Amino acid sequence: MDDKQERWLEAELLVADAVGDVIEHWGFRKALGRVWSVLYLSDESLAAAELAERLQMSAGSVSTTLTELQRWSVVHRVFRAGERREYYEAETDFWKMISKVVSERERFVTRSVRERLARASQLLVGARDAGSRARIERIARLQSFADVAERVIDTFVRSGRADFGSFSDLLTLPRALMNRARRSD
Amino acid sequence: MDDKQERWLEAELLVADAVGDVIEHWGFRKALGRVWSVLYLSDESLAAAELAERLQMSAGSVSTTLTELQRWSVVHRVFRAGERREYYEAETDFWKMISKVVSERERFVTRSVRERLARASQLLVGARDAGSRARIERIARLQSFADVAERVIDTFVRSGRADFGSFSDLLTLPRALMNRARRSD
DNA sequence: CCGAAGTTTCAATTATTTCTGAACGAATTG
DNA sequence: CAATTCGTTCAGAAATAATTGAAACTTCGG
Hints:
The structure is a homodimer of 185-residue chains.
Chain A: H1 2-25, H2 30-41, E1 46-47, H3 48-55, H4 59-71, E2 75-78, E3 87-90, H5 94-124, H6 130-159, E4 161-163
Antiparallel strand pairs in A: 1-3, 2-3
Chain A binds a DNA duplex (30 and 30 nucleotides) through helix 4.
């Protein structure tokens, strides 16, 4: 029945857009979620052209999106004997997806931020007055925060478990160093 | 010494931009991280004008940014007796910040996505052929994924601990329902 | 080798996000 | 109550990001 087909296409889009919105909320392009969804919902692997058709995207955009999804190990290319085109299927191990994404984001913190904090700290060495000491201390806090964050995320990626308990007071300065007006709300 | 002051300004910007980049990587505006940093590094609470000055932002943009930071409970307004202007200070309990953000993002999944998945599922009820059944099953998987995700995130927000072990095979379909070409890479 | 089919790349366009600056409003003071 | 100081808002400007469409490439069969 044709009615059935039509309903299915509507349902597919509904799901694709929902997933697209979720991952957009987590900082990715909506298209990534939409393409993954169609692949996930499909019985069999699909070629780029079919994705473009179903999601009303251009060939270029589908290509870009598939490349990115593969970079995140969230979609895989599959080989079909005798077929010229390339087919794709969705990764279904969600843990793989999460851990890949998280560790990727972690790498950024590690590499780039660390050295900038260190450089900032360098700029202040030798200063002896109270103000400077307090500033040095605060930068040091951010650095140890980066350390802890890296450890926690690392453990998370490895084991699937995370404990953020140690984060609470990492940034809070000892009373002695504080000199603030009282909070109003 | 003026040299000291200059170095400090440079260090401050270095830190602010580093933090800005991090939080940008996690899906927020860079300005949020920059403003939070300057507040965190400061001895005392600061007024909007000082933030604008130090970060070279317009008054409007500082105002918007501070409002958003407060919405996330990441910056607080403080009252200074006898002063007309409003002053701000950084929240230093990082756990508060994380949990607020995560629970906010969770809310989105809960509200909007659930009903769309349900609607998609509705569209397919009654279909008896194998293809339709498989599709219904896959949508059901996404739904239970949403359930589990919500539980895990909820626990995380409450306890600071998360265990993603249960995620691995949630989306994977039973062999019987699969009909795919073999993976090529 | 040629041509067809499929894919990637990229400059140009379009859409979206963010920021600015000026106007408005509220609060405070002389 | 006029003048001043802050803060917010918002229309338009500027900056970024995503998408298209077409050209360039790649692969493969003949």
